[in-house]
TrEMBL record:
Protein species of origin: Methylophilus medardicus
Membrane topology (UniProt): Multi-pass membrane protein
Main location: membrane
Superkingdom of origin: Bacteria
GO molecular function: electron transfer activity; heme binding; metal ion binding
Record-stated family: Belongs to the cytochrome b561 family.
Protein name: Cytochrome b
One GO cellular component, as annotated: plasma membrane
Length: 198
């Protein structure tokens, strides 16, 4: 495959790294939301109760605080990686869609790609704004980034947006993956291999 028909190595690495990070952020977001607000405070946590890794803390905290801080710290890091990906996408024209795509496939694929970029940015930005207007602010792996402004109304606006964007992102993500599966197993074309490192 020539270089005009496949993605750059950087684009491919960013695609898979961010895809798996977003899946992990969904799992963490759903998991932490179920944790009780008045849970016991501890200094040692068996991470996700898997028996694989014990997280030692300096100060006792509830499981909810630990996983919220982890979600916020990972999400804040992911924001910068996503912004770099957007910069890379703008500065490196991607290969054209395969000539074999129908007009409808072109519309769905292009629409899904644009929506994915929009939502990839909207997710962490709404999360950061929710955190800014919360009581707690943002500590990036323990390092203070900003204090919370404690405005419940604005916090709720961005909390609702974060949840709405998550639902839309999940729906578009499913369409995107179903498309990739169709091209791999039904059309048996190059779609998936040009987004893979050889
Ligand atoms: C691509 C990045 C991100 C993804 C995919 C993501 C995903 C999610 C999901 C699925 C939830 C659960 C929503 C629900 O209960 O319906 C959630 C909740 C939450 N997220 Fe994120 N998130 C991201 C980035 C961030 C960032 C950067 C922050 C803050 C710095 C953040 C802060 C929060 C908070 C505080 C909640 C809990 C809301 C509540 O129940 O009070 N998120 N996130």
């Amino acid at each position: 495959m020539s270089s005009t028909q496949r993605y750059t190595k950087v684009a491919i690495i960013l695609h898979w790294l961010i895809a798996f990070a977003i899946i992990a952020m969904f799992a963490l977001g759903w998991y932490m939301g179920e944790l009780p607000k008045d849970g016991p405070k501890q200094t040692a946590f068996d991470l996700f109760d898997l028996g694989l890794y014990t997280w030692q803390m300096d100060e006792p905290s509830s499981a909810r605080t630990l996983y919220f801080n982890l979600h916020k710290s990972l999400g804040f890091s992911l924001l910068w990686l996503i912004l770099f990906r957007v910069y890379w996408r703008i500065s490196h024209t991607p290969p054209a869609l395969l000539a074999s795509y129908s007009a409808l496939e072109r519309k769905v694929a292009t629409g899904a790609h644009h929506l994915l970029y929009l939502l990839m940015v909207a997710m962490p930005v709404s999360g950061v704004l929710m955190t800014l207007y919360s009581k707690f602010g943002l500590k990036w792996f323990g390092l203070e980034v900003f204090a919370g402004l404690d405005n419940a109304d604005l916090r709720d606006v961005f909390k609702e947006s974060h949840e709405l964007f998550a639902n839309i992102l999940l729906a578009v993500f499913i369409v995107h993956v179903l498309g990739a599966i169709k091209h791999r197993f039904i059309d048996k074309d190059e779609t998936l291999s040009r987004m893979s490192l050889k």
